[in-house]
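Researcher: Let's do a round of design. I'm pasting the structure tokens now; please hold your answer until I've finished.
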């Protein structure tokens, strides 16, 4: 196989959660440009429509499915819609996530539970629904979970719920990789560091910071903690997701690939 063949995802049916913007949209865009057919799942239907319009005319195709990933019915419904559109589900990317910044001692339990429902429980539900379909199809499949460097080390005070969810997601990745290996389904994760997205450019929910303070905090983090001296871009994560979705990663499962500009070195 040529290098082009090894990294090909042409014709694969893919599902990406939280795909209307940010890292999720970056991954969907890279997959579509590489010839994959992608179902974009997000609860923001207006943003989904804009995303689909931007992806029109790519080597692959993009369709949308509006749903709240915290809803238990969303996963099987999304998988069914993906198969309806593309005839198969070959790649699942669990990207949807929220990150309210609230100290643990001040966080209501309902908010803690919501972070776990969106960031961790939804990944379990979507992985279960996707793997069921992949097993029925035969031929294996790929599941890619978007974790975080915070699954290894907390980056700041106020992200206890987020950190717990991403730590759990990293271990869920390993457990599912072990369970699904006999079916040829490879399960890996990506741990991004600081990535410039619509969300990270706004003050964190509950932080009490204004936009200028948020920008100053981000610059301070870059100067102090990122050896490459820049924030990452969504496509820095998307290219790794493409690798994990392709045959280039055929002997990898249960791994977490850190993509952080060296942040964990600091």
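Researcher: That's everything. Go ahead.
Model: Designed sequence:
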């Amino acid at each position: 196989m040529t290098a082009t063949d090894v990294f090909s995802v042409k014709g694969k049916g893919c599902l990406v959660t939280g795909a209307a913007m940010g890292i999720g949209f970056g991954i969907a865009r890279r997959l579509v440009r590489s010839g994959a057919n992608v179902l974009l799942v997000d609860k923001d239907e207006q943003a989904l429509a804009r995303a689909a319009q931007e992806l029109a005319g790519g080597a692959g195709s993009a369709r949308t499915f509006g749903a709240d990933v915290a809803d238990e019915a969303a996963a099987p419904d999304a998988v069914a819609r993906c198969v309806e559109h593309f005839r198969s589900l070959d790649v699942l990317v669990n990207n949807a996530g929220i990150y309210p910044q609230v100290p643990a001692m001040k966080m209501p339990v309902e908010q803690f539970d919501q972070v776990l429902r969106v960031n961790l429980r939804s990944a379990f539900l979507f992985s279960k629904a996707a793997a069921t379909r992949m097993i029925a199809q035969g031929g294996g499949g790929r599941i890619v979970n978007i974790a975080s460097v915070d699954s290894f080390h907390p980056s700041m005070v106020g992200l206890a719920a987020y950190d717990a969810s991403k730590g759990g997601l990293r271990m869920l990745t390993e457990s599912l990789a072990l369970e699904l290996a006999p079916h040829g389904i490879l399960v890996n994760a990506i741990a991004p560091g600081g990535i410039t997205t619509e969300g990270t450019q706004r003050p964190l929910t509950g932080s009490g910071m204004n936009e200028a303070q948020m920008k100053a905090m981000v610059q301070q983090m870059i100067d102090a903690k990122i050896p490459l001296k820049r924030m990452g871009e969504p496509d820095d994560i998307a290219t790794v997701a493409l690798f994990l979705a392709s045959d280039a990663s055929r002997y990898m499962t249960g791994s977490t690939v850190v993509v952080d500009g060296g942040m964990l070195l600091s």
